[in-house]
């Protein structure tokens, strides 16, 4: 069962902290829109666009740097400190009186999130070493994100019937504080001392070096580009398609986004059993190929999102949401398999930064193309970008090179090194086979 993983008390508390923090973030999103209108009037859209740009810049630029800075600290202290920083930033937002103050506080808040999230994600595979349980935890996490998109606006709407939007920031503060309390109460694993002894520059670059030297992770990055291209089209342009294309109202916009979320949640529920039978590469590439082909077919064959009719469009968005989750949900499994325990945190931070760099490209591309070319043409361009991501993943992540146990040769280790105690002597060094990850002894992937 999907929910059997919640029997683990440590994971149960961390998952509860994640849900509560997500709900608080959802309330923040609604409140920010209303605050932006108060601060900038008709320029509120510009303010919100800049806010989302700042969020992505913080994610991409600060995640590896922050991970290197805090890697000497126990994970509990890092998570609690970041929750408290986020709570303090949210507490200040209702009192701003100029736009630049919004930008500054959002940068602080999202910078803390760029530190919190990879640290949190890297802890879960240590708490749940069994792969079946970890897969179910990934599906629950996907489910939590999708439910937050549905529940937070409803909670915000109910609250606004009785209080002003400023009180929504109070809900955000409460969410982060409660998240910190749950983290404090959880029994978390200790950080390895070997990682703590590394020089700062090595800690700063370590995650990126491991990530970019591992074929399956280079393939994962390409698939993240494909998912970002499709996701940006949905998030940025659904409102335009529904309102301008179909001539429908705001409830139908919510319905379309709900169909996308329903598809994603369906995938989260089905993926654990699917991944018990099929390997990650097959499942993720199939999902990316299907959704890319759908976008290209729609653009080339129909020329308009309105051609399938409203029910057909909802069904399309349902399938797109399903495939989107199929591509993204197994990512944690690949990251866990591709790093030693002490390297999980920098590798998750590298993935966090690189995957959001894809969104930093596709978000403005979806908006700019949609405003100037039209929806079908935008879907064609983003669909081609997604296809490029799929083809690149096929090249960078070959099925023959994705074995976990790899035979390889060491030419630069001391003969007394215990790592090669079971190796066979060759004319050039020492040859053996084991589960292979990039680390200090293995700096290149075997050819």
Automatic annotation (TrEMBL):
It is found in: Cell membrane. Keywords: Cell membrane, Membrane, Transmembrane, Transmembrane helix. Coiled coil: none annotated. The chain crosses the membrane at residues 20-40, 46-66, 168-188, 225-246, 252-271, 283-302, 314-335, 347-366, 378-397. Residues 10-401 form the Major facilitator superfamily (MFS) profile domain. It is a multi-pass membrane protein. It comes from the Bacteria. SUPFAM superfamilies: MFS general substrate transporter. The keyword Oxidoreductase does not apply. The keyword Transmembrane helix applies. InterPro entries: MFS, MFS_dom, MFS_trans_sf. This is MFS transporter.
